[in-house]
Every structure is written in structure tokens, then in C-alpha cells.
Design goal:
By secondary structure, this protein is mostly helical. The chain contains nine helices and two strands, in the order αααβαβααααα.
Amino acid sequence: NKNQKQRESVKKQIADILNISESDVRPVAVERFMLGEQQGWKCLYSGKPIDQVEALRAADKQYEIDHIVPFSLILDDSRQNKALVLSSENQLKKQQTPLMYMAGKKQEEFISRVTDLYKKGIISKKKYDYLMLADLYSAQAVELLDEWKSRNLNDTRYVTKFLVGYLRKNLLFDRSASDGDPVFAV
């Protein structure tokens, strides 16, 4: 309920900013707004300002939502694994973590920016850990990524158990046509 109220409030703010109706606000604009607000409307990777209106319109592809740890590696599509960044920064990053493609002063400024957001309580420990991964193959990275997979596998088990019980209770089956239980989980 809290998240739903927050999303409705964000939709209203976006509608006001873009001068459109709330029904015309796309889900990607809501996600961009929430990330932009969290990041202080600055590209998390470069520190350059993000034009709020352009980012919410998303017509010119100047800004993108990037998976901090590549989605293909951990399938984490939560906001904890996302950042609103300049498209050019996302292209430079490729299939790496931010610290893998940055070097020198740019890396130092990034670490400072992220640490400041974490210390102020603006980003979670999980997002901070994702942003601070120096590579994808260290023991720390394997532990962090396995933890996410394990947690989601447990969530899937829980949901599956619930759905099997729900289907058994609420659907009528022709028991004469089957051998055994018509609802089961694999």
C-alpha cells in the first residue's frame, strides 16, 4: 500500500512536470523519476546533471536506466540494481560494474558520490554493495550475487507453495479423469 501510494504521488508529480494527464504517465517515467530523485538528478556514473524533463520524456534517448550489475548475470531487475545515467556512460560501461570501467579521478569521484549517498541513508546497503563491486569474479561478488539468487529462489518456492494450495482450494477438477492430484509443483 505504501509503495502504491508513493507511485501514485510520483505519477501526479510527473504529470504536473510534463503537463500531461496522470493516465499518460508511463511506468518507465515513474522509475526514472524515482531514480532521479534518489540520485539528486545527477548521473550516478559521471556526476553530470540530468535534465529532469528530458529524462522523463525519454524521447531522445539521452538518458537510460542501467543495471549496475549486468542483468544477464543475476537477473536482478529491482531498483536496488538500477541507476539513471547518461546513455554515453551506459555505453562505456558495457557488461561491467561501474568500478570495472572507471579509472583515476572519475573513479574517485564516483566512489565519493556513492559513499555520500550511502552515508546519508539515501541508498541502501544492497545498492551500495552493487555499486562498489570492483569485479564480477571476486569472492565478495560471488557471495553477493549468490545471495540474491538464493533469496529469489526461496521467494519462488514460497509463492509456488501458496499457488498450489490456492489452485487446489479454488478450482474444480474432474477427479474421475485423472490419476492422483491434478495440482502439483515441479
